[in-house]
Amino acid sequence: MSDQGAGPTSSLAPPPPSGPPPKMTNRGRSADPISSSNSDSTDMPEFEPFGVPGPRGFPPMTEFLDISSVDMMKGPDESNKKQHRTAMFNSDYLIVRRGQEFQVRISFNRPYKPATDTFAVEFVIGSSPQYSKGTYIPVFPTKERQSSWEGRVVDAADLTVTMGVTPAANCIVGKYHMYVAVKTPFGIRRTRWDKSQDLYVLFNPWGPDDAVFLDDESERQECVMTEMGIIYHGSYDDIAERNWNYGQFNYGVLDACLYIMDRSDMPITNRGDPMKVTRKASAMLNSRDDDGVLVGNWSGDYTYGVAPTSWTGSTDILLTYASSKMPVSFAQCWVYAAVFNTFLRCLGIPSRVVTNFFSAHDNDGNLKTDIILDESGRIDRVRTRDTIWNYHCWNECYMSRPDLPTGFGGWQVVDATPQETSDGMYRCGPASVQAIKHGHICFPFDAAFVFAEVNSDVVFYTRSKDGSLEPVKVNRTHVGRMVLTKTPGDVTRRDITDQYKFPEGSTEERTVLEKAEQYGCGRDKSDLPEADVDLVLPAMEISVGDDFELSLEFVNRSGERRTVDAYINGSVVYYTGVTSSEFLFSNPTVTIEPNKSEKGELVEVKSKRYMKSLVEQANLHFIATGKVKETGQIVTAMKVVTLHNPKLTVAVSNGGKVNEEMTATVEFTNPFTFSLEGVYIRMEGPGIMLPMSKYYSLIPGNSSLTWTEYFIPQRAGSSRLMASLDCPALRQVYGTAPVTIGDRSL
Fold first, then answer.
1. Which residues form the Transglutaminase-like domain (predicted)?
2. Which of 361, 392, 438, 440 is catalytic?
């Protein structure tokens, strides 16, 4: 059969569409649209008739109760903000916490008569308010008629009624519109929408019926109200501190946090559940999958953004994301954790940033980090793929867990750093800290992943020429060496390792690991004889640019002479454990007499050998391995050395008072012989200075700079001014200065 004559008109397929694709809706799936934006709203009608008007319309309603004005009582000195602990928010709106009464003052055209007059205060959130979904809440002043939010008349005098309103302890968190409605014989008459009468409702850790209730005032003050944070980094035996301004009360930050939930298309009805809010936010704080807040970058090249080490606070990041609607560049784990902490504290969920030193990244659930050695005992860099982060930062937030057995509420791990997917998205948690400690890794969400981060074993394998691997040493104590967070109300660190794991080698720890195995978390069972020779790498404090000497000590615990063929490897590494470049290799052979120790030859390391490949965290990683000739046993030692950077000097003028101008001065001296190019300095302080920055194209070697800035503090009390200096050749340079601001009236 011939195909001649067959043309386009013979096809039964419709022509291809032209123009933009149709907007997707839920039509045909549900009668009402699913509201997922707090910024979208539907205005309530000013008049809702009970029937149809007569021939002359509705009669005049002048003799009925009418609303003259509404006072939200939102001044910073009024009881609402003080009692709800929201006076620190830089906002023109009333902000309250759920499960706790606030008051509204309503003025009428005549005295209110409870026997004959009926009115209600209405609260609306989202674009399709419904009473059944908790997005439309009428609040009545009489005990006979109540809704999910309680109402009562606190005071009635002349033409004014003061109404007390108590939002339900599990109500939706977000921004509500408020109306006052009066019932007449002909219909409901209500106030026109006035944005000045909008209301923010937050989680309430002071409310016993709230899921985030935390019965410890010092913890509440720290984990909800404190803006100044300390984030720990470096290595477990040389801990460094990074100050951070969470800025949860700064202007625009609360709206930015609500925008994050809007951007995620999170249904309004889910926003009263802290589990759902924190899990959704864990995905939204990183830009993977969903164009979330922050773009991760561990490459060392930050040309088209801000280096992670340059940030000093969350405010710039959140306001930039809310205004640009685009992910902000760049972040690493502590930036994700710090901004996530701002989000949680701003909404009223108690939270803190936690640092785990030597944190395993386990992507196969086997609780093992594998290091491959060749037959001589030298590390095989090509085949060793697993990494251990020198440190990793995540968040803990406090909430009840009604989905878990009793006892597993309290602190929950949430992590916004994109490492592995969870239910198809890059997110982690909330995972119960109690569940992690006791090995209940089957509990949602992602407990197994966090368990591995603090409990993995480091297994050394020898690879023979035929490719087979044989375990030769297992280090069960290296990973999860220390877990730190800031002490409430102080600037010291608090060791919370015991909240994540039982003491190494204890009966409880063995029981927990056996339980984890029952849930499918395999681990190495090798029972290897302990070598009778130890390698010891010395503790070192080295500044960037220093030359130094490295020595390795060999300790023979046997009664016989031992000879060790050793390999000492020095590499520049990212804090994630990934190698940037190798700068040192030495292979001494050392003979140790019985029950003696011997130091190997000193290895001199010139700064020029590591400086050219130094990455922003300035970490040097030394691994020493060796093979004992007499026994064939493998011995190992590992040490991370964090190079110390020069400091910024920060000074603030004396005698500071609220609304009176002050000066802050940053000084820096380039300690190197070479010039620093493309230098950014940032400075900010909670309640005293919004983020400021200054750019220097060049700072010549051994020269100094001074930057002085004026600022006007807005809040009395103790605070801290912090500054960072950042450029491609030198990262992570910080300085801080304590500031005490007095009240202007004093």
1. 325-418
2. 392
Q: Is 455 annotated as a binding residue?
A: yes
pTM: 0.90
Q: What are the tens digits of pLDDT across the range 231-264?
A: 999 888 889 999 999 999 999 999 999 999 999 9
Looking at the chain, the whole-number percentage of residues with pLDDT higher than 70 is: 91
Tally of domains within the chain? 4
Domain that holds residue 489: 217-518
Q: Are residues 332 and 267 in the same domain?
A: yes
| CA pair distance 685, 630, nearest whole angstrom | 62
333 is catalytic: yes
Euclidean distance between CA atoms 624 and 620, whole angstroms: 13
User: What is the rounded CA–CA span in Å between residue 540 and residue 622?
Assistant: 11
For this structure, is 392 an active site residue? yes
Q: Is residue 620's pLDDT more than 50?
A: yes
Average pLDDT, the chain: 87
Closest CA to 433 of 351, 333, 492, 339: 351
Spot the catalytic one: 210, 316, 386, 415: 415
Give the pLDDT mean for 535-539.
Answer: 86
Q: Is 504 annotated as a binding residue?
A: yes
Position 9 scores a pLDDT of 44
Q: Would you say 509 is a known binding-site residue?
A: yes
The answer to whether 618 and 610 have CB atoms below 8 angstroms apart is: no
Q: Which of 167, 202, 237 marks a domain boundary?
A: 202
Residues 333, 397, 428, 521: which is the catalytic one? Answer: 333
Which among 474, 493, 518 is the end of a domain? Answer: 518
pLDDT digits (tens, 9 = 90+) for 152-167: 999 988 899 999 999 9
Residue 658 and residue 656: Cα distance in Å, rounded?
A: 7
Residue 28 has φ and ψ, to the nearest 5°, of 90, -10
CA distance 90 to 247: 10
